[in-house]
Design goal:
By secondary structure, the chain is of the alpha+beta class. It is 44% helix and 23% strand. It has 16 helices and 19 strands. Strands 3-2-1-4-9 form a five-stranded mixed beta sheet, sandwiched between helices. The protein has a five-stranded mixed beta sheet with strand order 15-16-13-10-18, covered by helices on one side. Strands 14-17-12-11-19 form a five-stranded mixed beta sheet, with no helix packed on it. Helix 10 packs antiparallel against helix 13. The longest helix is centred in the first third of the chain and has 48 residues. The N terminus is likely disordered.
Length: 590
């Protein structure tokens, strides 16, 4: 009897080995099909972006041939039974998941690539084809769903006993799929709201605000140039232009009531002079003040506000190419920042150090804005390059959007585009460092700043601490100071001097325990208190040419909290002419 049992076990073992051998052989065939499939799948998005539709379609067809061959090897009963074999089976299951994932991607690509025309984003004669946008939205939404499902399947694969080759292959596939998943997942909600944003059915108006970083404000800079744009069924028109000097500044009281915390921290000057409405880092507050100024001037109402700066414009010019201006200059990605923030004040409105026509600069900016707008609305050859410029500008807080459309507002919530600090520390712990010029001039073109931030949130046993060392540098040389025109130096300080409010926001719930200033010629505590649910301090520093002020601030987390109550630490700052590097030190956070 015993030998019968042994015989059965031997036969079972032999059968298992045989099944494993057959499945392994098939797995090699699957591998041979999937190895060239992954780079083909990874390369298709680039061809779509480049407008190589025929090449992308050919790749989709080739991908489908490879995926069909791979999936066919995993359909037999021998393969499915072999998946129950310990260790071997987990590898086979992972290989089958990879084959099915590639096949699903191939099905979507074959069906959808002929309809995926990114030219739908490109205005033609000032108008965007909304029917094409709707068609593109359907394709992208389907793709987002497909790739999200594929990504979920790959991530769910049990990798406990996978061979290194299988693990590496899954990781490569996961990376390729995740990249497309992220892109489509970002693009899909934008396409859903885009027709309404372009005035489908009901015209929509946008106030464009251009913040000049040569005169710093917390949100970016002096909002000297403004324009009203109307979108009607996809047609975009520039309808009104304005500058800050045309408004009735120096009001005896704020143009609109301010909340108590905003007025206590920044004073009512934020609402008495239009250049100061961007002194708060809370963009919705700026919009509320702007709406009051706009109505006071009797200008047409607006639905939404888009803010940007010349640095963001330089990114956009990478997509549009050079733009010749009516004033004779040619605006390029290389010269936009220097021309718009510095050279214009040397070239227009002043002769031999005397102001002769301050309106000349306004005319220059208005002309430049009109010609840039005309270029954008007549079409950009590579719309994805334009999106990349917008992404970079958003990441650097150089672009902000406020919308009365709740769907658009919800889409931007939590991103830097919204121009608001996060209200909790759940996902990330954000502190703020912002700069407001008090020189009354355009000398911040020569300023730089950096932030070194540290936190013990991942090692503290109790409430964590957050620290910042802020360095604000005045790079003007004495020779440069002597040659600066009045429009840059202003009337209040010796040429070359910078007076700057440094405004520091603690993380939500944290308190500012101490602060110190070194290196400045003078400094003053202007205000301290709470704003936007945060502890805040506002310190004014004065820096002569070629000097730097160093401001150190220590903050303590709310009593009773631990590091586990705080997301990853970061610092958001004012977008300056040049990048403001933020160096983070968070020991133990991995």
């Amino acid at each position: 009897m015993a030998w019968i049992v042994v015989g059965v076990l031997v036969l079972f073992f032999v059968a298992v080995v045989a099944l494993a051998a057959v499945a392994a052989s098939k797995a090699l065939t699957v591998r041979d099909s999937l190895t060239p499939a992954v780079p083909i799948a990874s390369g298709m998005p680039a061809k779509v972006v480049a407008g190589e539709t025929e090449g992308a379609a050919a790749d989709a067809a080739a991908l489908k041939q490879l995926s069909v061959r791979a999936v066919a090897q995993t359909k037999g009963m021998d393969w499915r039974i072999a998946e129950w074999i310990p260790v071997v089976g987990q590898n086979l299951t992972a290989v089958r998941a990879a084959a099915e994932s590639i096949d699903e991607v191939a099905d979507f690509a074959v069906e959808s690539l002929p309809n995926l025309d990114l030219a739908a984003f490109r205005p033609v004669n000032g108008a965007i084809d909304l029917a094409a946008v709707h068609g593109l939205e359907e394709v992208v939404s389907e793709g987002a769903s497909t790739f999200a499902g594929v990504s979920e399947r790959i991530e769910a694969a049990d990798r406990t006993f996978l061979l290194p080759q299988v693990t590496d292959a899954l990781s490569t596939l996961d990376e390729a799929v995740s990249g497309v998943d992220d892109t489509l997942g970002t693009l899909s909600p934008i396409l859903k709201v885009l027709p309404a944003a372009l005035g489908e059915g009901t015209p929509r108006t946008y106030l464009l605000m251009f913040q000049g970083n040569s005169e710093l404000r917390a949100s970016g800079g002096n909002p000297a140039a403004l324009a009203l744009v109307t979108a009607t069924d996809g047609r975009i028109e520039l309808t009104t232009q304005a500058t800050s000097v045309q408004f009735a500044n120096a009001r005896p009281e704020s143009i609109t009531p301010l909340d108590a915390e905003t007025e206590s921290l920044y004073s009512d000057i934020i609402g008495r002079w239009i250049p100061n409405m961007t002194a708060t880092p809370n963009f919705p507050s700026t919009v509320e003040i702007m709406r009051a100024w706009w109505a006071d001037e009797g200008l047409p109402p607006f639905d939404d506000v888009i803010s940007t700066d010349p640095v963001a414009l330089s990114y956009i010019l990478n997509a549009t190419g050079a733009i010749p201006l009516a004033t004779g200059e040619t605006l390029t990605s290389e010269n936009a920042v220097s021309l718009l923030l510095n050279e214009v004040y040397f070239k227009y409105g002043e002769i031999d150090g005397k102001v002769v026509d301050a309106s000349a600069q306004d005319l220059f900016f208005a002309s430049a804005a009109a010609q840039i707008f005309a270029k954008l609305t007549t079409g950009v050859d590579n719309p994805l390059a334009l999106f990349d410029a917008f992404r970079q500008a958003s990441d650097e807080s150089r672009m902000k959007i406020w919308s009365s459309n709740p769907d658009i507002e919800a889409m931007m919530s939590g991103t830097r585009l919204a121009g608001t600090l996060p209200t909790t520390n759940d996902d990330r712990t954000i502190a703020g460092v912002y700069f407001n010029d008090t020189t009354g001039a355009k000398t911040d073109y020569y300023a730089d700043a950096s932030v070194m931030a540290s936190s013990d949130q991942c090692t503290a046993s109790g409430s964590p601490t957050f620290n910042q060392t802020i360095t604000f540098v005045n790079n003007i040389t004495p020779d440069q100071a002597d040659a600066l025109p009045y429009f840059i130096t202003g009337p209040h300080f010796e040429p070359g001097y910078l007076a700057t409010d440094v405004v520091v926001y603690a993380p939500v719930g944290a308190s500012i325990a101490s602060w110190n200033v070194a290196g400045a010629e003078s400094f003053t505590l202007v205000a301290e208190g709470t704003h936007l649910g945060r502890s805040v301090v506002r310190i004014n520093v004065v820096t002569p040419p070629q000097t730097a002020a160093t401001i150190t601030v220590s903050m303590t987390g709310a009593e009773g909290t631990t590091g586990a109550d705080y997301g990853p630490y970061d610092v958001w700052t004012t977008p300056m002419v040049r990048a403001t590097p933020v160096t983070l030190e968070t020991p133990g956070c991995g």
